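Q: Could you predict the 3D structure of Pyridoxamine 5-phosphate oxidase?
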Amino acid sequence: MSRYARLAFTKNVRGVQEERGSAQAMARLLARDTEEPDRMGPDEADFIQARDGFYLASTGEDGWPYVQFRGGPPGFVHVLDSGTLAWVEVRGNRQYITAGNLRSDDRVSLFFMDYANPTRLKIFGRAETRDPAEFPELHERLSDLRTDGPLELLMLIRVEGLFWNCPKHITPRYSEPELAEALEPVRERMRMLAEENLELRERLQARD
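A: Sure. Here are the predicted structure tokens for Pyridoxamine 5-phosphate oxidase:
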């Protein structure tokens, strides 16, 4: 199955699964005895590159987790190959918490969400930052489509595990472009009704 489960289902996690009665159901996810990282296929690549944002979690040297949102135009997260994601890091609030956390622990977790079509993809990976000046070819490739703002770093994620999560409890939400497309027929109908209404008013006034 997925190596994601082998990374996520620690001894304590399996203990809780036993207590709560889900251990047998979860055992199938541990059936594949391998240390080889999961690989992204066309479905994962298409899903990731269609997203306009995701959540990124890291852990500091004191053990506290940190989660932040990364956003940009669809496609700003580039799938370089079946095992590597990358994007351009731009200047934000200049706290640099994630960048600092990676100096002590390169392990990260990413959540890619499609709220409009309740779907989520979870990824475990190892992150590294690169200086754009030292990797001009990578810089050029990642800058083809990226978040607006002053460029600071290039972020690479080596995928360790991935898992398509259950859509249960994902509340559907829609972005402005998604709503604009869906509402266009309604807007067109309203324009037609407005024109008809104006025409009828003009006819009534002409009778008077």
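Q: Anything worth pointing out?
A: DSSP finds seven helices and seven strands in the chain.
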